[in-house]
Amino acid sequence: MPLPPPTVAITGLTGFIATHTALAFLAHNWSVRASVRSPAKAEQVKDLKVWERYLEEGRLEVVVVEDLGGGELAELLEGVEGVAHLAAPLGMTELGWEGYKKPTIDGMLNILKQAKSVPSIKGISVMSSMSALYDVQTPEAEQDGKIYTEDVWTPLTEEVALDFDPEDPKAMWIYYGAAKRLAEEAALAFVEEEKPQFSVATFCPPMVYAPFHHIISLSQIANTEGSPPIFASLLSGRDEPLPSKGGFSWVDARDVGEAFFRAVEGRISGRFLVSAGKANQQIFVNKLRELRPDLDEYIIKGEHSDDKLGPTSYIDATKSKKVLGLECEYLSLFQTLLGEAGGRE
Description:
Layout: E1 7-11, H1 16-27, E2 31-36, H2 39-47, H3 49-57, E3 60-64, H4 74-77, E4 82-85, H5 96-115, E5 123-127, E6 147-148, H6 158-163, H7 171-194, E7 199-204, E8 207-209, H8 228-233, E9 247-252, H9 253-266, E10 270-273, E11 277-280, H10 281-291, E12 314-315, H11 318-323, H12 333-344
Parallel strand pairs: 1-2, 1-4, 2-3, 4-5, 5-7, 6-12, 7-10, 8-9
Antiparallel strand pairs: 9-11
Helix pairs in contact: 1-9, 5-7, 10-12
């Protein structure tokens, strides 16, 4: 009789990247036990077509965990072989610094501490962010040629976050970056002091794009976190202005999910940057128009000559490619944009 497939616990299943992470594990024949914050969120998962097959097959189980930072996690963790922790606040500046710090750090530490008492757990992947490295207070043009590697940390500290004006438009990124840095440092300290039986890998992606599987209707895009609202704005009408002309690093969420899987399955520890390259919104809309001429009236035209990156920093993702075996597997800009445009229809 064949053995049952291994199970991974995934936090925050209703999130954009968590959705693609769960799909990565399912594609590799794992089962998924995923947490959501409320019964209403659990019902939302059941309404999404992307999960229909896996719920019917019994390969996706959803559990309600109202408080990852202080709650009991036995129902989520018992018997699983891996954990992918992705739940964290983003875009909620009204919570203030403490509203970012507490759930980001406490949620991660609570998972690590309770996982230590579950002998079946062999690997944990944790979502950090490029914000844990990036110097958001220095203009990109002044970082021209700077190379970000896993050895770099953001200069943001708790002191900076406490002193920052919560009314400033950058407050969200200051709080988010500082919280992610502190959470990563807390994870490193936990591993050093507790020497758990499982591996711990942290991942620091930049802007993440992929099809929108985590929402029921397009009307929900504006209320979601991360890149979906930004991408949707590029299809707001041919004559609308581009939201931004600056360059940015990016990665496909499907590659992030694959990286999470490989670290858990391979019991790989370490800090990893995951990035497919550099672009700007003019490059995106130019490529989108090539891919989907039928959407021409919706895709912002911009100025075709503005597709040069200009002064910018870069991410070196060599480590994630070599250690995790992702060499040549990062999805191309073509695949990502085609998936995004298709996900919007």
